[in-house]
Amino acid sequence: MQIKPTKAVEMAAIARAAKSGEDRCFVIMSFSGNPLLLDSYELAIKPVVEELGYACAKVDEQQFNGSIRDRIIEGIRDSTFVIADVTEARPNCYYELGVAHSLGKIVIHLARGKRDIHFDVRDFNFIIYSRIEELKEKLRKRIMATIRPSNP
Length: 152
Known about the structure:
By secondary structure, the protein is of the alpha/beta class. It has a single domain (7-14, 23-146), classed as 3-Layer(aba) Sandwich (Rossmann fold). Helices cover 45% and strands 14% of the residues. It has helices at 7-20, 35-51, 68-77, 91-102, 132-146; strands at residues 24-28, 55-57, 81-85, 106-111, 127-128. The chain has a 5-stranded parallel beta sheet with strand order 2-1-3-4-5, with helices on both faces.
């Protein structure tokens, strides 16, 4: 029987990865508690990213003291690439997306529907999804086509 690591163990692994220079993905998305978004992250985004050899994190999984804004900017800055799901069109997600763009990060853009995509970013190639399996397939293909796998 395999024991699933606790959140503390997972966060310690992410911290070690950050210090070791391991390839990482930072995820931008709403923290609204929407079960569809929670499933998108837990059942599609995180497993696909980790399967391809990257550490995967979003700021609400981390324990820290200090400014959440500083922690988000640090996470974006130190990442290999960013996944930004703008579902729910939250202003904070758009702020973080702007930070990622201004830092020249590779960003994979996601949304559950086109209505959440604001005018200023509509020209980016978004993955539009409605089902978990669809998101997993599209995300895996996008990462494989645009970002080298961390552990080929």
